[in-house]
């Protein structure tokens, strides 16, 4: 019988300690800080995603066509030089 009363006494102590810890203002504040940090992180990731979307679409709309046009211009210059050399004209240095 002594072992069962000792066992229930230990469970009572564990329950009281658990109750005190769960109602601790430090634990409550820690949970609140963790919740606030999660909210801020979520908002930051959403804002970063939006900024990445804007930067990516801007790059596709403005920069990619410019790169394509510059490549075409370079190819045209090379083609003109090649045609001039085939026709026997003196090579002309490409203008920059």
UniProtKB/TrEMBL annotation:
Topology with respect to the bilayer: Single-pass membrane protein
Transmembrane segments: 51-68
InterPro entries: Tom22 (IPR005683), Tom22_pln (IPR017411)
CDD domains: TOM22
Keyword Ligase included in the entry's annotation: no
Protein keywords: Membrane, Mitochondrion, Mitochondrion outer membrane, Protein transport, Receptor, Translocation, Transmembrane, Transmembrane helix, Transport
Gene Ontology process terms (BP): intracellular protein transport
Tree of life domain: Eukaryota
Pfam family name, one: Tom22
Record-level GO cellular component terms: mitochondrial outer membrane
Family: Belongs to the Tom22 family.
Protein name listed in UniProt: Mitochondrial import receptor subunit TOM22 homolog
